[in-house]
Amino acid sequence: MQDQTTTAALTQKEFNLFRELIYKEAGISLGDGKQQLVASRLSKRLRACDLTTFTQYYDFLKKGDPNGEERLRMINSLTTNKTDFFRESHHFEYLRRTVFPQLEKQARETGERKIRIWSAACSTGEEPYTLAMTVLDHFGPTTFHGWDIRILASDVDTDVLAHAQKGLYEADRVADVPRDVLKRHFLKTSKDPEAPLRIRPELQEMITFRRINFIEPAWPIQTDFDIIFCRNVMIYFDEKTQDTLLTRFSEQLKPNGHLFIGHSESILRLDDLYQSLGNTVYQLSSKAGAARRPPANAIALKTKAASISPGPTAEHQTGQTAHSDSGSHRRSTGRVQTNTGAGPAAPVLLQDNELLFPTQSIIVGEIQASAEPMKVTTLVGSCIAVCLYDPVARIGGMNHFMLPSNAGNDRICASYGIHAMELLINQIMKLGGDRRRLNAKVFGGGNVLARQEPDNPVWAIGDRNIRFAIEFLETDSIPVVAKDVGGESGRQVQFLTHTGQAFIRPLQKCRAEIEADLLQMRRIRAQQPGDSANVILF
Fold first, then answer.
1. Would the CATH topology of 12-78 be identical to that of 89-292?
2. What does the domain layout of the chain look like in residue ranges?
3. CB 207 within 8 Å of CB 151
C-alpha cells in the first residue's frame, strides 16, 4: 500500500487524461499550471482506493466504478469551494436598493407576490444564507407580508452541499459578519465564544439544496427565476462552456431578470442577451428569458429512446394520467436507496405531450426517496407501500414492508414497517424535506396470502399491516391524504416523487408471486427467536 505521507507522481500523460475527464464530467478547464494541484488532491483518493498510481486510479474510474460513486468523489476533490458570508457585498446592497424595490413595484401591478432566486454554485452555503438574510431584512419576518420567496442552492460537490444543509459554521467562518447580523440570523450552540454558530431555522426553511451539474443536458428545475447568482465559477470553464452556460441561464431567467457573476468574470460576448448594469450585475433582455424557452417535449425529442414499451394504463388513480413503467425489479432485501440530487436522466418522450421521468422499481424491504423527478413503482399484496411527500420542497419517496415489526429481534430492516417508516422519513429529511410538512398515501394490505391457507391466522396479516401504517402516521401527525387498502387483490403502485401523485392498478397476483411472498414470510419467521405464536401478534 502506498505510503500515506507521500504524494504520487503525476505524469504529463496522466494529467492530460484527468484534465479531459474533469472537463467532460463537470466542464472544468484545467490549465497547464494545475498539474501539481491535481496530483495533490487526487493522491487522497488513491490512498482511499488502495491504489499506487494515477493510471490505476484513472482505469478504476473508467472501468471499476459502475455506480459513479468514486467519480463523484473525484469531482468533489478537484472543485474549489472558496466563499464567505456577504462576499462582494455590493451585490447584496444592489438587491436591497434596486432589485427588490423593482419586484415590489411589479407585484403591485400584477398582484403576484412571488420571487425565486438561484444560488447556482453555493459551495458550503454562505452565499444562499446571505441571500436569505438579505431577503428577511428587506421583506420582514418569515411570512414576508404575503410574499412567496424561495431560494434554490445548488453545487456539483456533494460534500459541500452536505455541509451547507447543516447550517453550522465555525466561529472563524463568521468572524467578519457584523455583530448585529449575527444576533439577528445566527444561534449560539454553547456559551463558549469559540463554539460553532447555527443558522436560524427561518433562513434554512427558505432554501432548498440540490446537486446540479452545469453540463448535464437537462437540469432538474421546474421554475423560472427572478435572480441568479453564479459567481467565481465560470473562471474554471473555457469560453465555449461559459457561453453555453450563460445561454441556459437566460432560459431559466424571467425577462428582465438579474444575473450576478464574479468580479473577475464578464459576459461581453452575449450582449444581445444581457445588459451590463455595472459591478458584474447583468439584466436579461426583455425579449429573452424563460418565456422563450423551448417546450419540454422539444427538448425531449433530442433524447428519445430507441424503443419504448408502454405499460398498462392505471385503472384507479390518485393523480392524473399514469405513465408507463420501464423499471426492473431487483432481488434484494433491506435496502435503502436515495437519489441525492445527482440529477435525473433526460426525460424520454412517450407521446406528443407525455414525458416519462426515470423509473425505479422497489420490492419488499426496499426504500426509494428522491429530490429529483422520478417515478417509483412496486407491486404489493398483503404488504404495504407508503408514499410520503413534502409539497413545499417537492421531495418524496416510497417504502415497501411486509410486517409491522420484528418482534424479539433488534435487527434494523426495511422489511418491517417500524423501520421502513423511519428510514423513509429520514431519507426525505436528508434530501431537504421537512417532517412537519409530510403527507402520506397508503396502499396494499390485501388478503392475498390468506387464500393459500384460509384457516391459518399467520397469513391474515393485511389488516394488521394497514392498522400499523395508519396508527404510525396518526402518531407522527402525518396526514393520510389518500389510501387504497384491503380487499383480496394485489396492486401495482406508481408514485411521482416530484408531484406527490400516486397511481394504482388492481392485480390478481399470479401463483409465482404469491409463493414468493410466502417464501419471504417464512424466511423472516425463521430469523426471529421464539415460537410461531409471536408471529400472529403482528
1. no
2. 12-78, 89-292, 303-536
3. yes
* C-alpha cell at position 92: 447584496
Q: Under a CB-based contact definition with an 8 Å cutoff, are residues 267 and 261 in contact?
A: yes
Active site amino acids: 41, 155
* pTM of the predicted protein model: 0.50
Q: What are the beta bridge partners of residue 389?
A: 396, 439
DSSP secondary structure letter of residue 231: -
C-alpha cell at 54: 494515477
One-letter-per-residue 3-state SS of 139-170: HCCCCHHHCEEEEEEEECCHHHHHHHHHCEEC
**In angstroms, rounded to a whole number, what is the distance separating the alpha carbons of residues 364 and 414?**
8
Q: Where are the beta strands (DSSP E) in 412-489?
A: 439-444, 480-485
Cell numbers that stand for 267 in this block? 459576459
Instruction: Let me know: does 280 contact 263? Beta carbons within 8 Å.
Output: yes
Closest CA to 207 of 136, 282, 138: 136
How many CB atoms within 10 Å of residue 363?
19
Instruction: Give the whole-angstrom CA distance, residue 491 versus residue 384.
Output: 10
Topology of domain 12-78 in CATH is Chemotaxis Receptor Methyltransferase Cher; domain 1 (1.10.155)
Question: Please, which residues bridge with residue 278 across strands?
Answer: 281
pLDDT, tens digit only, all 538 positions of the chain: 444 445 568 888 888 888 888 787 767 777 777 788 788 888 888 888 888 888 888 888 888 776 667 776 777 777 666 678 998 899 999 999 999 999 999 999 988 889 999 999 898 899 999 999 999 999 987 555 678 899 999 988 888 888 899 999 998 888 889 999 999 999 999 888 888 999 999 898 889 888 888 878 778 787 889 999 998 888 777 788 888 899 999 999 999 999 999 877 778 778 788 999 988 999 998 766 654 444 333 332 222 222 222 233 333 344 332 333 333 333 333 445 544 443 333 333 333 333 446 888 898 888 999 998 899 999 888 899 999 999 999 999 999 998 887 654 444 577 888 888 988 998 898 898 888 899 999 999 887 655 545 455 445 688 889 999 999 998 888 999 999 998 877 888 999 999 899 888 887 644 444 445 545 544 544 444 333 222 211 1
For the domain made up of 89-292, give the CATH fold.
Rossmann fold (3.40.50)
How far CA 251 is from CA of 80, 213, 235, 267, in Å, comes to 26, 16, 21, 16
303-536 carries CATH number 3.30.1330.200: yes
Q: Which residue type, as a one-letter code, is found at position 42?
A: L
